[in-house]
């Protein structure tokens, strides 16, 4: 059922409407009336004949008309009776304000589940519970107790937290930001963040989607809905709870390095969601996206009436990774030839404190016609000799929708007074250059995301059945840690190059294997009880002849038995020494919400000490994989440094894509490390030198 | 001469006072009168008999009384005549508003120099030129055209930029921040930032010093003045121009890695200056320091009326490196035993949206008596059912000056209305938890700096005379690049361990030296024309016998001659192979303002690729040197990792201290790299494996 009827009803009933000022049932009814809703408004209360001038009915069933939207202002214990009455008036939507559900614990969660089931049976879409309701400015419907009707506009805000929904409304009013809708989604029992994204993507009244979320339940659906929405219009989200990393049992490097927040970051990036870190930036960004066009590039022209403020703005632009754009040749000449010489053809353009507002206009128009300028930042400081209001009025005449223009008017009260006029004229206004620049940066990044090439995920030819057999056998026997031998077996089936080798269970076997594959060989202990082999002396490299192969076998097993008494030793893996190259780590950890997250990092210290790693959600394209490599600091190492040639980055990207395919094909793989993955020069085949995987247990049979 | 008379004059004359509204000479006079200054106010203008009700005189000399402070509102061309008249009225201070001096270029700089000299001869202290004047609320003197008189308070603002001085005044008024003084220092021709720090450190009206600076001319004096001031009261500075790195000719790693901003960062850290990155944080910090005591530790208790906002606050606290403090055992018990169960004994304390303001009070008092809590963050979201004003009034009754309390009242207009009351009651108010936390963090860092141990710089016994001889010979001959041989010579004299070695100029000599010091040896080309020896095949390691020593000599000299035709080859340096160990880089680059800046980083890729280095101004203490090591990401490498033991960090610290002493003793050393500096286990002697220095040319004789 569409949720559109919920937001655009012909008639609204408030069950639990009250005559007592201050009660929620009163506030909501009063808000609906005051908002100017033109449909039928029906208060329901058995103890009243009339409320706020409207005839009141004892129950929904007795109101004698169809009701599209029912707002329940009753306490939790009475909500069920409301739902039961809904079919009598053919209600399509229900808002449940009451708290006392999932947010209170397991008992509440059961109540909430029951409520959802009841609504589904009654064919009702449910907003809440534990919410403030919603406001829709398009039909003047304020079905909430959030506050007064905001101005009409094209930004829609939705919030999981009721209290922060109030904050958002308050902030929007304070900034004179017009809203299309304000939606308090509460516990998201039925209508979720995903539903909101899908609905708002197609909502013609909404040009910018802004959300506050504390959790995302279905990661995959979220990514799909968010990407769809972001392809249509900007989606800006503040996700809180970034640092409270959940404790998670993990043995892989990849798992250890992925923080609780990494998956959200990866998901937002994938789906084109613009992420805000604070409420202030949420609104800073929303204002720019709502009022101005996207920039075509990252060249910023700064126009200022104070040198110091210009320096600050230029600092901010450079720190944000954008460019302070010098004047073009022609423009430079024109500026110099101007008889007044009102400004120097440099950037920041300092038009000096006490000039005519017309000079701002001249400078802005010059920037608008300069093809090397992608965005314009106007900086204004209050100067006692000239009131800024006149300048503001002059500046807004320049807004033509061709290039984004943002303004930083520094100072206090006087600037605040100008905000209404400027915003109404379409100029996003900030109190500091830094915040204006942050908004420009967000616009630039979104513009770049929109221009991304189509995603084509390569499917490699692999031996899927072999992996299926290995994994299901391991899951059946409960041996969920795959060590080097089985790990390499799986990877080999997915096209990874694995050195020739075999498991020896006696010293004689070890020498036989070594002779067969040729020296030098590597010898490694194989035991389900030992994770970090090398720490315990379980790895010997460059074993170069028969005698030392035999000795190594005996010595290693002896040592391990001493160090880890009771360890089950399956034998020693003897394999061809990997050729030399650069050691990198590629791996995967499965996020409960967002699925497989791929990791890349340079081996050893770069991962362990510097934590210089990047993550990306699977499935991954070749281009994305190469982008992963490029976004590590240590990327320069891959390109080669003084006196060293680079390595085959495409081969690493291919490894990441193969892991992507493997872990997408097999959801039972929870974690995977290829460490080290040894890569050589261009055209050489990278080698899996060691590997490890963790599988999920088979679901218990009931 | 003290600048106190300038700020506290008994009489003020405005030269160039005007009857025309809008002219600077009118505004300043009007500001002085309107501000309520109780001393004599004397307008000077030959064309007027009376201005704004005051008798006007044709010239200073004709006013017939002593004038402590003269404000010149005249254009630059007339300023000299004003200075010449000053002695006639025994003036002590002069404010020059006019621009047209140093900021315009070399000609203006000469005019400014002349102005300063003239003032010095006339025993006048000069504020400006190119400034707005100053405001002193203690004597109601607004000798500026900055704007209206701000409220009285204990924060003093000073600014190098006039336009940003207006911004600061505007922002202070907007935030109801009371000011002691507002000083526009302009071009700082006489009264500089250093003078302001020294004066304000002792100014009883000033509790918090806040400055905006674009440059610092005398780094050493600045550090001293700032450290003195910061030992008395908080000094918060915004320094702009951080990214516009000046191009600087440099050959050392240290020089390349030190950005234009590195020295400022190091200087501020050394001197206890609290650095703000934006104007908003400048005021955010000032407000907290002005109104609240410093925290004793970094445990923060969060009290909120909305769960979501509490999560955001907790995120911010953790990201800032502070701790979200759980309730203590006793307090936990008390909270649980409370019959009302008004809040759960967790942190953030969520007191829920619609409770009585008294619950805030209970929660705050609990935090105040809990010895595990160092700071309290109150988060409030507007809730439609309860106006925040009542809550605000209740909260401010708790302020007792024992622990810092800061508040984040989220939302818009309503919060703004409360600000005045809250600030008046001593509660710093922020619009978001993030900004409140940033202020707490700044307070915590300043508190930690105040508790720093006394700085004792070790003086090592060294052979200073030997270095003196080497350097002056090189300076005289103009050979300012010291390569490996001479570099090691200098370092050896300062107690560094240098491998035994000698310069060979023939293959025979090379073998003789090698035989004498014992194999294996390292052989390196010595040429003043070759900086990166190893890139050109000028380094051979592990030469292990007579024959290969001879061959190496011939081969190396042959190759280098081919690769760098015309290079002056002095020979080949033959030295004992350094023992194995961890390679680090220590070095120095001399900042024009702040002098020698020491650098530390792990060798090779860590410096070249990861740029993982730290800087510190010389002279350095042992503790500071160890802190330098600890503040690199790669510090974990020094401590040893899986299966590897750590290295002698104290020995590295000692190396840094020796460089500190060397480069403090010899200002002619401009740059110095020890790369690599090979360090081993604890107790082992680190080795200078290679070194390089750049000297300053001798000053030209006149």
Automatic annotation (TrEMBL), chains A, B:
Transmembrane segments: none
Keywords: ATP-binding, Ligase, Nucleotide-binding
Position of the signal peptide: none
InterPro entries according to UniProt: Acyl-CoA_Synth/Transferase, ATP-grasp, ATP_grasp_subdomain_1, CoA-bd, Ligase_CoA_dom, NAD(P)-bd_dom_sf, Succ_CoA_lig_flav_dom, Succinyl-CoA_synth-like
Gene3D superfamilies, per the entry: ATP-grasp fold, A domain (3.30.1490.20), ATP-grasp fold, B domain (3.30.470.20), NAD(P)-binding Rossmann-like Domain (3.40.50.720), Succinyl-CoA synthetase domains (3.40.50.261)
Residue ranges of domain ATP-grasp in the record: 488-700
A molecular function GO annotation: acetate-CoA ligase (ADP-forming) activity
A Pfam family assignment: CoA_binding_2
SUPFAM superfamilies in alphabetical order: Glutathione synthetase ATP-binding domain-like, NAD(P)-binding Rossmann-fold domains, Succinyl-CoA synthetase domains
Family to which the UniProt record says this protein belongs: In the N-terminal section; belongs to the acetate CoA ligase alpha subunit family.
Protein name: Acyl-CoA synthetase (NDP forming)
Natural source organism: Desulfocapsa sulfexigens (strain DSM 10523 / SB164P1)
């Amino acid at each position: 059922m569409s949720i559109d009827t919920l937001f655009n009803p012909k008639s609204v009933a408030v069950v639990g409407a009250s005559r007592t000022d201050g009660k929620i049932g009163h506030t909501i009814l009063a808000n609906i009336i005051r908002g100017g809703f033109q449909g039928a408004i029906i208060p329901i209360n058995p103890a009243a004949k009339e409320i706020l001038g409207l005839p009141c009915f004892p129950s929904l069933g007795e109101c004698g008309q169809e009701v599209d939207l029912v707002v329940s202002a009753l306490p939790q214990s009475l909500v069920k009776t409301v739902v039961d009455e809904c079919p009598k008036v053919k209600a399509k939507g229900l808002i449940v304000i009451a708290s006392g559900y999932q947010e209170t614990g397991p008992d509440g969660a059961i109540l909430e589940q029951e409520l959802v089931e009841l609504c589904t049976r009654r064919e009702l879409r449910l907003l809440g519970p534990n919410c403030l309701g919603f406001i829709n400015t398009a039909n003047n419907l304020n079905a909430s107790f959030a506050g007064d009707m905001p101005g009409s506009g094209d930004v829609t805000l939705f919030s999981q937290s009721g209290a922060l929904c109030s904050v958002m409304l308050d902030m929007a009013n304070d900034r004179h930001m017009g809203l299309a809708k304000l939606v308090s989604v509460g516990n998201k029992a039925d209508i979720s963040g995903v539903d909101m994204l899908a609905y708002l993507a197609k909502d013609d009244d909404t040009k910018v989607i802004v959300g506050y979320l504390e959790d995302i339940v279905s990661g995959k659906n979220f990514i799909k809905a968010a990407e769809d929405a972001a392809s249509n219009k900007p989606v800006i989200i503040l996700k809180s709870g970034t640092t409270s990393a959940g404790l998670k049992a993990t043995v892989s490097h990849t798992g250890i390095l992925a923080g609780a927040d990494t998956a959200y970051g990866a998901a937002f990036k994938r789906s084109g969601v613009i992420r805000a870190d604070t409420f202030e930036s949420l609104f800073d960004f929303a204002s720019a996206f709502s009022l101005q066009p996207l920039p075509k590039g990252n060249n910023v022209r700064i126009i200022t009436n104070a040198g110091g403020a210009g320096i600050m703005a230029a600092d901010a632009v450079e720190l944000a990774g954008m460019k302070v754009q010098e004047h073009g040749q022609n423009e430079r000449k024109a500026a110099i030839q101007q008889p007044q010489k009102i400004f120097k053809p440099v950037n920041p353009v300092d038009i000096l404190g006490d000039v005519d507002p017309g000079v701002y206009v001249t400078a802005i128009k010059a920037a608008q016609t300069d093809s090397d300028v992608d965005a314009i930042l106007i900086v204004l400081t209050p100067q006692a000799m000239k009131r800024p209001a006149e300048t503001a009025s002059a500046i807004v005449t320049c807004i033509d929708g061709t290039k984004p223009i943002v303004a930083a008017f520094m100072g206090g009260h006087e600037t605040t007074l100008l905000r209404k006029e400027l915003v109404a004229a379409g100029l996003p206004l900030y109190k500091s250059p830094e915040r204006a620049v942050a908004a420009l940066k967000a616009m630039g990044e979104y513009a770049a995301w929109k221009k991304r090439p189509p995603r084509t995920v390569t499917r490699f030819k692999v031996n899927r059945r072999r992996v299926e057999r290995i994994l299901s056998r391991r899951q059946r026997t409960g041996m969920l840690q795959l060590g080097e031998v089985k790990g390499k077996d799986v990877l080999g089936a997915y096209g990874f190059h694995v050195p020739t080798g075999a498991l020896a269970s006696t010293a004689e076997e070890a020498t036989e294997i070594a002779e067969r594959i040729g020296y030098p060989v590597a010898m490694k202990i194989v035991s389900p009880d030992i994770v970090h082999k090398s720490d315990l002396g379980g790895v010997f490299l460059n074993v170069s002849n028969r005698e030392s192969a035999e000795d190594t076998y005996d010595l290693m097993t002896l040592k391990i038995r001493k160090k880890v008494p009771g360890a089950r030793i399956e034998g020693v893996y003897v394999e061809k020494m990997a050729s030399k190259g650069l050691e990198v780590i590629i791996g995967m950890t499965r996020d409960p919400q967002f699925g497989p997250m791929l990791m890349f990092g340079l081996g050893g210290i770069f991962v362990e000490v510097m934590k210089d790693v990047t993550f990306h959600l699977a499935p991954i394209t070749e281009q994305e994989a190469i982008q992963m490599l490029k976004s590590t600091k240590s990327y320069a190492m891959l390109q080669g440094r003084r006196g060293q040639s680079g390595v085959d980055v495409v081969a690493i990207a291919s490894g990441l894509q193969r892991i992507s395919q493997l872990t997408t094909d097999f959801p039972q793989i929870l974690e995977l490390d290829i460490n080290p993955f040894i890569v050589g020069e261009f055209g050489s085949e990278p080698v899996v030198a060691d590997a490890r995987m963790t599988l999920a247990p088979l679901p218990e049979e009931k």
